[in-house]
Design goal:
The structure is a single chain. The protein has 4 helices and 10 strands. With 211 residues, the chain is an alpha+beta fold. A hairpin with a 4-residue loop joins strand 9 and strand 10. It is elongated, with a radius of gyration of 29 Å. The relative contact order is 0.13.
């Protein structure tokens, strides 16, 4: 078969589009295109466009904040790993269930509970919200450093687990706030990895609130 009628395969055209072939090979392929081969011309055109897209993507700089958020969300469906970080056990310092309930509160359509935990230098403020008749619970929380209030606690993964199983997770915002929605069950814990400090907060949520 002569060079004029020889079809080049897709790998050769990929190298041609990326300009990674020798001058001699390039001349042969150009001569083939000039002979009027529509099949190879179509393949070459497609790969040339693809190479241009790849070149533009390689020069794109991903914003650091977006990169951190994506990394924090990786493994959403995975079971929680055994952490090598130093565990900071949180202790309960306030529970609104211990407060006297005003007249009429038990008859409202929404059940709320607020708790506050301390763990090392950190506080974890949690509020449980539940609409009567709903099977799910909404947990709204905030993480703060009591000794260094200006510490940025954004883009932290906040993982809710039951035993060794991950239930759901969220990511803290600029103010260290987060929100989770879940169906209450036994042995629930919150895990908050603090990679920069080599620590991980653990909050035992105890028995699920009565729905």
């Amino acid at each position: 078969m002569t060079e004029a009628v020889r079809h080049f395969d897709i790998t050769e055209w990929a190298d041609y589009a990326r300009n990674t072939i020798s001058g001699e090979q390039q001349a042969l392929m150009q001569s083939h295109l000039q002979s009027g081969c529509t099949k190879c011309a179509k393949t070459k055109g497609l790969l040339t466009k693809f190479a241009a897209i790849c070149s533009r993507e390689a020069s794109y700089q991903i914003p650091r904040a977006a990169e951190q958020q994506v990394k924090a969300m990786l493994g959403l469906a995975q079971a929680p790993r055994r952490s090598a970080l130093q565990r900071l056990w949180a202790s309960l310092v306030y529970d609104s269930l211990n407060d006297p309930q005003p007249v009429g509160v038990r008859g409202t359509h929404q059940i709320n509970r607020q708790v506050l935990f301390h763990a090392g230098d950190y506080s974890v403020d949690l509020r449980f919200e539940h609409e009567k008749g709903s099977a799910s619970m909404v947990l709204v929380g905030q993480i703060a450093n009591q000794k260094m209030p200006d510490e940025v606690l954004s883009n932290l993964p906040v993982i809710l687990v039951a035993g060794n199983r991950e239930v759901t997770r969220s990511i803290s915002n600029t103010f260290g706030e987060f929100q989770l929605e879940y169906v209450p069950e036994s042995d629930l814990r919150l895990l908050v990895p603090l990679e920069s400090r080599g620590q991980e907060l653990e909050v035992q949520l105890g028995k699920p609130p009565q729905l």
